[in-house]
Amino acid sequence: MSKAKITINKNYAISKIDDRIYGSFIEHLGRAVYGGIYQPDHKSADKNGFRTDVIELVKELNIPLIRYPGGNFVSGYNWEDGVGPVENRPKRKELAWGCVEPNTFGTNEFALWAKKVNADVMMAVNLGTKGPDDAKNLVEYCNCPSGTYLSDLRIKHGVKEPHNIKLWCLGNEMDGQWQIGHKTAYEYGRVACEAAKLMKWTDPSIELVACGSSGYGMNTFASWDSEVLDETYDLVDYISMHQYYGKNKMSTPAFLAQTLDMEEYIKRTVAICDYVGAKKKSRKKINISFDEWNVWEMADAHDELLRQIYTFESAVLVGSMLISLIRHSDRVKVACQAQLVNVIAPILTNNDTLIKQTIFYPYLHASLFGRGTALQTLVECDKYECPEYTDVPYIDSIAVENNSGVTVFAVNRSNEEVTLELKSENYKCANNPAHTAMYETDNFAVNTFDTPLNIQPKNITGIINENNIIKTKLNPVSWNVIQF
Ligand code: AHR
Fold first, then answer.
1. Beta bridge partners of 436
2. Residue to mutate, 172, 218, 241, 336, ligand 1, most ligand atoms under 8 Å from C-beta
3. HSE (CB half, 13 Å, CA atoms) of 113?
4. Ligand 1 test: best mutation among 24, 289, 292, 294, most atoms within 8 Å of CB?
5. Cα–Cα distance list, 460 to 312, 338, 437, 438 (Å)
6. Strand ranges in 61-148 using DSSP code E only, listed in sequence order
7. For residues 443 and 255, what is the distance between their CA atoms, to the nearest angstrom?
């Protein structure tokens, strides 16, 4: 048995959290769109062909923002193929994932679907096979009210009101050799700069995200990001970060320690943004859009593209990744869990029904209770060593304050039960603090269509408030939400 102390204090505020860090992502990939959010022959389909069972579950997550349409897909996408009368839309060979894109679902359908789930759209433009002209055309089509060729075309397509999409990605993972239209940092920086210019001239109210590195492991990390910002600094608002963590035969404590790497990746990307800002003697700050993050077992081969069954321990790592995003909410202003339905996703559908995967729950908790002001936690706890990481704190935690009170999110990465004392220096703790947790005896337990409720959060009884110190226990390998 190990012991830990967490101290919170309202003066340890990090930042007001931007709600958009609880964003998500839908790509034309696998069964995310077709057979996921859109399935006209499904028993729950509405008149638009949207699965209402999926809509209900997405609404439960209270997602503020959803990135679309890719991902690698966007780098070969003609958005014009996906608008106008469905019978006239072409089927195309889709090169990013090696499929055929039927184009029966496109920009207007997605914007309508996003409205139904109460989310804003984060739209990506194709800077792989296309360029500035195409990007500004999509802004005009989506955002201009009327009176221009493309805004009138949208109206002709049955969409009178502009979509008013405020956040745009300048391409996707352009540093990756796998990307359609991959570029060097300078080539991409120039195209992104020219696209940004035309897009902002078309709608000055939009915000833009330049492609940063597509992972901390990229050997061009840092030089790519700083070169891209050299070319785009004055025109863009965010630089993107992407990161997926897999198991790679690691032990559970090592698997869960991977957020130490995420911490370093965020700090270094912030440092690069500020370095370029300093070189330019700019007062402007570039913030971070962490627009792809999740656990992804790339080695797991399935008959279906990127279909992933999440284990219990994946949920705990997802919780720890959410804690990192909140901890850096002073600079991470947008983040998208990748992805939302069927493709490395918290929601899994089949032709009949749907389930919540293990990772659904920490995302739900953070989205519901993680809004407000982030507070640094002072943690005293044991540390462990594993071959991949040294000095790993047993406990990873963060606190969030809002009108309903204070929520502490905490992960116990270790295999030991931890007795926790939670001291709040200048908050009065209610007499009935609440503790919800995810813990299991089997770290590899999963939810399936046959056992959809196998893994769920549980209430922890025995939490007490003793003279304003909350006492409870954190189970080995667990995700915890403590509220007072
Ligand atoms: O989210 C799955 C894929 O991962 C995305 O298409 C791509 O951007 C990333 O490599």
1. 459, 481
2. 172
3. 29
4. 292
5. 18, 30, 7, 10
6. 65-68, 92-94, 99-101, 120-125
7. 11
Helices first, then strands: H and E counts in the chain = 10, 26
Report pLDDT for 299. 66
| Confidence at 448, pLDDT banded by 50, 70, 90 | very high
Question: In whole angstroms, what is the distance from residue 435 CA to residue 449 CA?
Answer: 28
Strands 207-210 and 167-170: what pairing?
parallel
Structure tokens at 3: 């012991």
Task: Work out which ligand 1 atom sits closest to the CA atom of 292.
Answer: 1
**How remote is the CA of residue 30 from the centroid of ligand 1, in Å?**
12
Dihedral sign for Cα 232, 238, 239, 240, please: negative
The total number of residues written for the chain in this structure: 484
Model pTM?
Answer: 0.98
162: nearest Cα among 182, 141, 181:
141
Around Cβ 219, how many Cβ atoms within 10 Å?
A: 9
Q: How far apart are CA 483 and CA 401, in angstroms?
A: 10
Å from CA of 339 to ligand 1 middle: 9
> What are the φ/ψ torsions at residue 53 (nearest 5 degrees)?
-65, -35
Each residue's pLDDT tens digit, 64-89: 999 999 999 999 999 999 999 999 99
User: In sequence order, what are the beta bridge partners of 290?
Assistant: 335
Minimum-distance ligand 1 atom for the alpha carbon of 176: 10
Nearest atom in ligand 1 to the alpha carbon of residue 29 is: 6
DSSP assignment, residue 331?
Answer: T
Q: Give 64's DSSP letter.
A: S
Cα angle: 275, vertex 276, 277; to 5 degrees? 90
Does the pLDDT of residue 393 top 80, yes or no?
A: yes
- pLDDT digit string (tens) for 322-373? 999 999 999 999 999 999 999 999 999 999 999 999 999 999 999 999 999 9
